[in-house]
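Quick one, T. Sequence first:
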Amino acid sequence: MAEFTSTIQQVAAGQNAVLDTDVIRSRCVNHRTGSGLICLENSGCDCKPARYRVFVKANISIPTGGTVGAISLGLSLNGEVVQSSLATVTPAAVSDEFNVAFEEIINAGKCSVNIAVTNPNTQTIEVSNLVVIVERIC
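Structure tokens:
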């Protein structure tokens, strides 16, 4: 199991949230502190993929100067947003904070895969108390 966190940041449209603390490290889950990418590897010597459960939770809001409307947070797999991971809320006003959480199962075959927590919106959002837990399940 690996755990990564971040306190508060503004994430531009289409960009990844930065993870600034590696709470728990793992042999097959690699991350460089201050980066938004997490690399999942298959350490086995056979062709079976490694399977990981990725859990993400965070508070999201529209920062001052933003436009009120629906906002989302999601998981990207090799740069592409996984649509089933999108967590969407509709704040009534700027700075209204909502807690979102989602979980995805990710397979890493012969090649490693990169995951990231991404802002899929067309505007900047504020992300706080971000926690990403990656657990190898088989």
